[in-house]
Design brief:
Two copies of one chain form a homodimer. Chain A has 460 residues and is α/β, with parallel strands linked by helices. Chain A folds into three domains: 72 residues, Winged helix-like DNA-binding domain superfamily/Winged helix DNA-binding domain (Arc Repressor Mutant, subunit A), CATH 1.10.10.10; 111 residues, Aspartate Aminotransferase, domain 1 (Alpha-Beta Complex); 236 residues, 3-Layer(aba) Sandwich (Aspartate Aminotransferase, domain 2), CATH 3.40.640. Chain A is 38% helix and 14% strand. In chain A, strands 4-11-10-9-8-5-6-7 form an eight-stranded mixed β-sheet, sandwiched between helices. A three-stranded antiparallel β-sheet of chain A has the order 12-13-15, with no helix packed on it. In chain A, β12 and β13 form a beta hairpin. In chain A, α2 packs across α3. Chain A is elongated. In chain A, 47% of the residues are buried.
Chain lengths: 460, 460
């Protein structure tokens, strides 16, 4: 008869302790395959337990397949592999620790300390009090949010968009994943060179080929695009990252004609275009697309915070039908709570207020940063090129050092730099010796310090 | 000289109205390519505007590539395609309207009306008041959340997991997307047949082949698995959807040996296993995996709400290293705010309390539903099979009607049914005439009504 010291069970319920004892004996081979267990009544009497306790243990063993029953004969041990020793704990590779920088010019991130967190919190409390955050929403995203986005695009960018065309996604990378699936693995996507590397990374993970296309001062080179065999193009015509180039109207028309002739799709990735410091916003390519070739996409990472993971795309009718047919099974990846809050933040006018405040704030900051660079000890050896928009500018260095040497010297001084050459697959000299200066995080009060640190990095 | 009626500008700023007038003339061909614009001073005088206004309009036109400058000669019109007419508004396919059902037994969804929304709201207010929700978190997810998940897995399932192994994702489908990329397109994934169709859909979208493997009462058939050429298997050993089958310990050991011999990966998708009504939780396959072959994944869709879009996976060391190397560039797709709140909900013990309350609630509901079925007019013609877990059970009908005829009859009466045959690619008779009854949304007070409606649907 099975004998176990039930008093050793610690805090476990009796049935669970008994289950564990029998399980151990089965796994060690002490109870062999085919062996019959004592009847519930007999074991209960033997161990001074209730029949219900033994029944609980036997049921659990049966549910997990350690024992089986034969009608009117009782419980029998199943054949299992004997486990001689407890498994050794696995060695887990430790979490990589991100380095701490004295100065980080590579981080292209808005300063979220200026975000109206109190307003966001108030709107969140409002939504929470209404309880609707537990009700799942439509797969393309909450209609109220899509309408608010369509209204915002009309008001701020003159775009005509219907809420039906909008698909909400959990940030730019998630939207790239959806786009890769929408375009399909057989497609060839032309991407900007230089350009944002994550776009290529995501497409390639999906097996979509990418063709880097060089840029000139008007935008993507049409001859290279035509020769590339691309079936789609992914670009940022309103503010290219990191050069800031704005695609000219002539080039836009050429792109649209190319897309119509080739039955191709244009992805207009409107990354980092909101902070334009002079004049009016550049009209979206989508707004002059009469052939339904353009997918417009944007996120709130640069304007609210990258911690939000919210973005959207606007699909032309042809792709909207394909999306619903082929990808409509994906539930919207953004929590319903956050969708409700963003909808109110947009439709309440808080987003536009925030943008206009930040535009002034960043213009002041940019002016201070540019002034500091121009009066720095290395001012004679740098050429700044900036297009009056975005939270970064390019700084070309007159130096004999190559980018890698400069990077290493900077790192040894606790400074992280970004180089234009990192954004390109093209080894051209034109892209060397050029820093991408992301100034969104540079506090005006620390500029003097920043400049003397940079003087050390850039010393000849 | 260009002449425009500046008084017709409506609410537009002067510079913007002037920019629009000139742009229209360029696009219509009234201003031809190569033509020189009047000097800023001359145009300002002519239209009685300030030079700054004209400068604003010219700068905007230049930024968008409608005009260009030649040093000391002024502004010239760029060649653009003439646009004869305003684009017609596109016809947007209307949003599909989901049908409204009198009774929906196909919806496998927890009843979120019982969720402690007030606690969730309080924790959210707490996080909002601390401001940290605007600070981006690590790509694998907030460490505090990953620790809370590891602790919960230890306490409730006896799993030994380090927070470093946990990757947070925006719901099951997003995790499937990551897994498809982690396994790679050259892999062949064995999936359960019958099984959850979205798993196959997501893998296939990514180009990963799926091989449906039949199940018997012990779980996935090992001979079919071995013959399939699969390099990975995706299954729900603790509670198969929709049959409820629990993979036996012997079969689990066979799976692990297969994975070790074949250098294969096992995805343990622990979908809908939390609500087990008798005994203790089934130990995870991951907890007996000494070879590091198992990825464990789960979400909070069934236990909190599908509106939350939060889940996680636990990677064994080998795949964790690959994940960091190849997919570490993906930022965590869940908003930081929601991650903080879930971390507190877990570590504060609220999740466990909620599960235990809901387990009782669903047991009562299930008992009432089963009793109602057993005393229904059609009780003599149905066989119920259920495994004491999950928010659904199988109901085999003694009927001459095929599933499609039954479905249509149900729909005409406003009833949505789910059939086991929908979950399978196998046309076997064994899967016919079997309803998957999702009872999570059936209110006990409406059971009598539900039964008479079903009696009508199932009438001979």
């Amino acid at each position: 008869m099975l004998t176990y010291a039930m008093e050793d069970r610690g805090g476990l319920p009796l049935y669970e302790y008994l289950y564990r004892c029998i399980r151990r004996d089965i796994l060690s081979g002490a109870l062999a395959a085919g062996e019959r267990l004592p009847s519930k009544r007999a074991l209960a009497e033997h161990l001074r337990l209730s029949v219900i306790t033994v029944e609980g243990a036997y049921s659990q063993l049966e549910a997990e397949g350690y024992v089986y029953t034969r009608p009117k004969q009782g419980f029998f041990v199943c054949p299992v592999q004997q486990v001689p020793e407890p498994p050794r704990p696995a060695v887990i590779p430790p979490e990589p620790v991100p380095p701490v920088w004295k100065l980080d010019l590579a981080r292209n991130q808005a300063d979220s300390s200026r975000f109206p967190a109190a307003t966001w919190a108030r709107l969140t409390r409002q939504v929470l009090s209404e309880g609707s955050f537990l009700t799942p929403g439509p797969h393309q995203g909450l209609y109220a949010l899509r309408r608010a986005i369509a209204d915002d695009l009309r008001a701020r960018k003159g775009m005509t968009v219907s809420p039906e065309q909008v698909v909400i996604g959990a940030g730019a990378e998630y939207l790239y994943i959806l786009l890769a699936q929408l375009l399909g693995r057989q497609s060839v996507v032309a991407v900007e060179d230089p350009g944002y590397p994550k776009i290529r990374q995501v497409y390639r993970k999906y097996g979509v080929s990418c063709r880097p296309i060089p840029l000139d001062r008007q935008g993507m080179d049409p001859a290279s695009l035509a020769a590339s065999g691309a079936t789609a193009v992914h670009l940022s015509p309103n503010h290219h990252y990191p050069t800031g180039t704005i695609t000219t109207i002539g080039r836009r028309q050429t792109l649209l004609r190319w897309a119509e002739d080739q039955d191709a799709t244009i992805i207009e990735d409107d990354y980092d275009s909101e902070f334009r410091f002079a004049g009016r916003p550049i009209p979206a390519l989508q707004s002059i697309d009469t052939g339904g070739r353009v997918v417009y996409m944007n996120t709130y990472s640069q304007t609210i915070s990258p911690s939000m993971r919210m973005g959207f795309m606007v699909l032309p009718p042809r792709l909207l039908e394909r999306y619903r047919r082929e990808l409509g099974f994906y539930a919207c990846a953004v929590p319903v709570l956050d969708q409700h809050v963003l909808a109110r933040f947009l439709s309440g006018g808080y987003y536009e207020q925030h943008l206009s405040r930040m535009r002034k704030e960043y213009r002041t900051r940019r002016d201070a940063v540019l002034a500091a660079f121009r009066s720095s000890p290395f001012a004679g050896r740098v050429t700044i090129s900036e297009q009056g928009a975005g939270l970064h500018f390019l700084l070309r260095l007159d130096t004999a050092l190559d980018d890698e040497t400069l990077r290493q010297r900077a790192e040894s001084l606790g400074v992280r730099l970004a180089f234009l050459s990192e954004y390109s697959t093209d080894p051209r000299e034109a892209y060397a010796h050029t820093l991408v200066v992301n100034y969104g995080g540079l506090e005006p009060e620390h500029l003097a310090e920043t400049m003397s640190l940079l003087a050390e990095v850039l010393a000849e």
